[in-house]
Design a protein that fits this description.
The complex is a heterodimer of chains A (221) and B (808). Chain A is an alpha/beta fold. Chain A is 35% helix and 26% strand. In chain A, a hairpin with a 4-residue loop joins strand 1 and strand 2. Chain B is of the alpha+beta class and 808 residues long. Helix content of chain B is 50%, strand content 17%. In chain B, the strands form four sheets. In chain B, strands 1, 2, 3, 6, 7, 8, 9, 10, 11, 12 and 13 form an eleven-stranded mixed β-sheet that branches. A six-stranded mixed beta barrel of chain B has the order 16-17-22-19-21-20. In chain B, strands 15-23-14-24 form a four-stranded antiparallel β-sheet. In chain B, helix 1 crosses helix 11 and helix 9 runs parallel beside helix 13. Chain B is elongated. Chain B starts with a helix and ends with a helix. Classes of the chains: A alpha/beta (221), B alpha+beta (808). At the A-B interface, helix 2 and helix 3 of A face helix 1, helix 10 and helix 14 of B.
Amino acid sequence: MIKLLGVSKYYQNKFDKTYILRNINLEIKEGEFVSIMGPSGAGKSTLLYIIGMLDSASEGEYYFLDEQVHKMKEKRLTELHKSHIGFVFQQYHLIDELTVYENIETPLLYQKVSGSERKGKVAELLDRFNMVAKKDLFPNQLSGGQQQLAAIARAIISKPKLILADEPTGNLHSDQGKEIMQLLKKLNDEGTTIIQVTHSEENAKYGNRIIKLSDGWIEKE
Amino acid sequence: MFKNYLKIAFRNLKRDKIYSFINIFGLAIGIACCLLILLFINSEINYDSFHEKADRIYRVNNELKYGSTELSMAVCSDCLGPTMKQVYPEIEEYVRIYNFAGTKLVKKGDGYNTEYSTAYTDSSFFKVFSFPVISGTTDKAFTQPNTVVINETIARKYFGTTEAVDKYIETDENRSTLYKVTAVIEDMPKNSHFRFDMLFPLKYMNYDFGYYVSANFHTYLLLREGTDYKDIDKKLIEYNDNYVFPSAQKFMNIGSKEDFYKAGNKILNELVPLKDIHLYSERSYEMSPSGTIQYVYIFAAIALFILFIACINFMNLTTARSANRAREVGIRKVLGTERKNLMLQFLSESTFMSLIAVVFAVGITLLVLPYFGEISDKEFKISDIFSGTILSFLLVLPIAVGIIAGSYPALFLSRFMPVEILKGKFSGGSKSGKLRSVLVVFQFATSVILITGTIIIYNQLNFIQNKKLGYKKEQMLIINNAYYLDKNVEIFKNEMKNIAGVKSATVSGFLPIPSQRSFNAFFKEATMGSDFGTTMQRWRVDYDYLETYGIEIKEGRNFSQQFASDSSAIILNETAVKQFGYTNPVGQKIYSIGESGKNLSFTIIGVVKDFNFESLRQNIGSLGFILGRSTGSITFNVNVADLPKIISAAEAKWKDLASGKPFGYRFLDEAFDEMYRTEKRVGNIALTFSVLAVIVACLGLFGLATFLAEQKTKEIGIRKVLGAPISSLLIMLSKEFLKWVIIANIIALPAAYYFMNKWLQDFAYRIEISWWTFILTSGISLLIALATVSFQAIKAAMANPVESLKYE
């Protein structure tokens, strides 16, 4: 599904290059649950964003579903990630001005899904996540765990093949964290590929593969 | 999707109440200003356009230069219209208006009312002009003697109804004359350059018709379709050569045509389009004071500036807030929106905001419309706002403003890389900081120009009011229309003199305010034509005139009853003496032509100091006083304390002596102020709009200060923890704004100096623009800016640092 060949990311300063990622070679198959681990500043998030097409590599080749991402135009990129990729962030990143219901609905708006279909899909997810009672609340009226639940609901509403999670439990206490991890595990069991960035060994155990990064290098698997 | 945008827009509005208020209210004020000025301009440029044939109607102007006499008049000979129509088929119709007959006294009950707006006109009047008829017909108007067409106001005043056709109006002419009403028309609209209440048939007027060289009629020509009026100007040259010149030779002792023109003289008639009269024609004997196109331009510029300032605020605040919106943009991008959609979102949001502003603006406009009508000396109807041009302006404006104001944030915000924003690397709007400061500078520069302009206009008005004019302006009571007293004028004057508080009195229609005038050519030699002579005003006064008006005698003496020869004496002012070139004027003789063509000679017995007998826009001209009867008005120099008694005594005596004619009086200083009504009006409008511009600019500054304080909350918190005193924090927060305002002043003051100097050139007597005006303006603008900013700065500096740091 995902294939990275010699991917590097650096920032050009006046005299030298600061490397974030160095010569990453990586292949991830459909259905995997991968955890990217490593100390702060190792380049975990950057790798995640490159995979998620929110950032681009400085060098190397990137294939997503056998398409050459590194040569793609902006429009096609948007197209790809809006139909195949869902994001979950540590800070949830819900839109403050929209209710839970509207937040979950937003990706469908961009995919031009009809009104009745949207209603059905959002209702189904709210039901599944036990959030029907909260649907008209605004993000700041929810607890962190509930916000993250809403964010995950938003990430999976358009049934993406891949979910990218950047420390999804980083801001949550352990009970809530566990709940979120179980949910991700369940999604993976249903066939969704998941890549998460995490500091926690415990969370990494939910996955079936661990990639360790240090100073931009892949250390070992 | 669109609903989603509106929802976000609306919730943003509700969440940031201060921003929303500043944004919408500021823009609304800007639009309201623009609307008011548009209404003003609309009414100025649409003068006389209500006539169906307005595009084909032209007025004949008259240009005359003979020796030092130069006249540029709105009137011409009674012969011009008929002759032109007879000779040139391009002229479909002509109509003449004669309005020099003065007022009519119309009987109502036992007494008389004075009707000021009366005129005589031709039967073609209603064929050329379009004035709606309420009752009766205008087909045969002005074809019969002793008929009259009246307007609604007159009909209601004298008959209590508009059904006045076939009823009679009685005037005092020949003791009593009856006029049959043939039609009642609607009151002439305010945007007509002439407005009459009563119109009489010109054909039966008591006037010596048939002189080509006279000039007493406002003459309008209706040209046939497709005629170029410039061609008619050429025909008018022919007309002058064929008719006017031969007649002038006979009457005025002129040699050959070639000699006449070679000496720089001219007789010229030209057409001016009806719709241009109000704004472009400023001639002698205009029927209403003209507007000037310059003021229209100035006001249009002010309107644009204020609108621009409001738009700048809008843009400024929106971009300043982009930091807050950046996260939303980032998320939306992650969720897969395209840039196009984001831009659309921001554009529709700003359009939505400006739509709300337009609604408020219309509300504000409706609220202040009566007040604005008062200060701008116009009458506006609410329906004016919803008329063609202005309505389309109201519809186009929000979209235009929305797009202009929304385009920057739309382009700027939609460009963000989502990763950067979400990682928190995005530094809120700092990139646009430079643009923002330019915009603030521009706003304040505009405000400073307006403030300076207002101060200078008021200074000039003040200067005019307090200038030493060379005569007494205060404590002068003028009794109007003293000719009603007829032979009793002297009795009235002498009896009034005995009343306590009356210091002196004089009978003369010639006053140092707009009143009776008489221009005459004077020559140094008894044989006319040897020199072109000097045109000067000749005022007929009595023995007491100079004393009553406090005009100082420089040389020689005043008129005196002891000298019988004073009937042919003349007193000149200094300017006239200079123009004649006398070093010892007293005792010299000058000559003139009398009404019957007879030579008159005058002996100079005295010279008075120059005094401003015309508007201060003009330099003092030549003037001579002679003894003579002119009963236009009686002026009393009075003691203000006794004024009520004096007026009631005057009225009582008037009743005895003027046999039922209406009594009227005014005060010289008030009549004097009336001469500067246009300037006062401009001053009022400038004051109003500069206040508004300052308010709008301050709103913008306030919003930016709020934003800056918010952005620096964390920095302020840290600094306070480290022990910074509040004063240093205040300086930190206000410094930048003050710098902008100072730069704005540096740019604006020279510009203001330039513009206002130009404006002052209209006055022959004017103030020097002094440096303190600029100090004052700078001070005001700095103070206002400081007050605006410090409110937020103090709030931010006083806040508990723990709060702000915990929040972060």
